[in-house]
User: Which sequence fits this backbone?
């Protein structure tokens, strides 16, 4: 049984259901903000607000493992995260600075810490699921290669591929566009 907060809306209900059933969920945050486009037109580009990333919700609660973050428009972001979470469920505990060849077969994936400021600011559903108590998170850092031919990945790196997750930078307070993908 999980210790999740009560839901406030239908998305929260689905998130809780998925965490209870699968042990986690993947939340995809897009760099598309049509509701704020006109208000933000005069602002300079922001490396956080204009980034696309996905993260797990529930690993800290169900596996006592840091939540995982993947930055960028990876065509197979969900599959990459499923592979990493499968390793966690098999008993592997990733730590900051670790490198693994098992997440994306044949390619090194590095795990880097996500600062507390970024966890609170950007991983909002993970923070909510943890009752806004401290939790850990690791960013999966993929190598900068053209994998299109080898693995069918289509890569469009965000302007700040690491989202400056270990170094806070000022950003406007705005809501994010969320694309829900179930963690399976």
Assistant:
């Amino acid at each position: 049984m999980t210790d999740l907060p009560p839901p406030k809306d239908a998305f929260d209900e689905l998130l809780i259901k998925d965490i209870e059933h699968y042990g986690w969920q993947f939340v995809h945050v897009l760099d598309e903000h049509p509701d704020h486009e006109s208000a933000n037109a005069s602002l300079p580009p922001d490396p956080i607000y204009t980034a696309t990333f996905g993260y797990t919700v529930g690993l800290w609660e169900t596996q006592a493992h840091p939540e995982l973050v993947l930055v960028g428009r990876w065509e197979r972001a969900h599959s990459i995260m499923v592979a990493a979470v499968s390793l966690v469920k098999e008993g592997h505990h990733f730590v900051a600075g670790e490198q693994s060849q098992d997440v994306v077969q044949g390619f090194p994936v590095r795990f880097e810490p996500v600062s507390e400021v970024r966890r609170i600011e950007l991983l909002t559903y993970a923070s909510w699921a943890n009752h806004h108590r401290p939790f850990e998170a690791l960013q999966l850092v993929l190598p900068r290669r053209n994998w299109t031919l080898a693995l069918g990945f289509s890569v469009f790196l965000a302007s700040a591929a690491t989202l400056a997750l270990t170094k806070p930078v000022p950003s406007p307070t705005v809501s994010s566009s969320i694309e829900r993908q179930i963690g399976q």
Summary: The first strand starts at residue 25 and ends at 30. Confidence is low (pLDDT under 50) at residues 146-184. The chain has one domain: 10-168+175-181. Residues 10-168+175-181 form one domain.
